[in-house]
Design brief:
2 domains, mainly alpha, 4 helices, flat
Length: 83
C-alpha cells in the first residue's frame, strides 16, 4: 500500500517484497495463492541450501529429515503444501 511503511531491513528482501506484493492496493497486482507457493518454495530451497548440516539439524530432528525434504521438494516445485 502506498501509505504503508516499508518493513524493517532486519527482514529479508524476499519477505519485504512478498508482503509488499500481497498488500497492493490494486487487486490485479496482488499475487494469487497459487503464485505464492512456488515463490515461497524457491526461497525456502535457497535458504536451506545455504545451511550447514548442523544448522539443518537445529530445525529438523534427524528422524524427520526425509519428510522435511519431501515437503520442501513438493513446495519448491509448486506442488502445494504437504503436511
Amino acid at each position: 500500500m502506498s501509505s504503508m511503511k516499508p518493513l524493517p531491513h532486519r527482514y529479508s528482501t524476499f519477505l519485504r517484497d512478498i508482503v509488499h506484493d500481497m498488500l497492493s492496493v490494486q487487486r490485479q497486482k496482488r499475487p494469487l495463492a497459487g503464485e505464492l507457493v512456488p515463490r515461497i518454495g524457491a526461497a525456502i530451497s535457497r535458504w536451506r541450501d545455504g545451511l550447514s548440516e548442523q544448522e539443518k539439524a537445529q530445525f529438523v530432528r534427524k528422524g524427520e529429515r526425509r519428510g522435511f525434504d519431501a515437503r520442501l521438494e513438493a513446495l519448491s516445485q509448486g506442488g502445494g503444501i504437504l503436511i
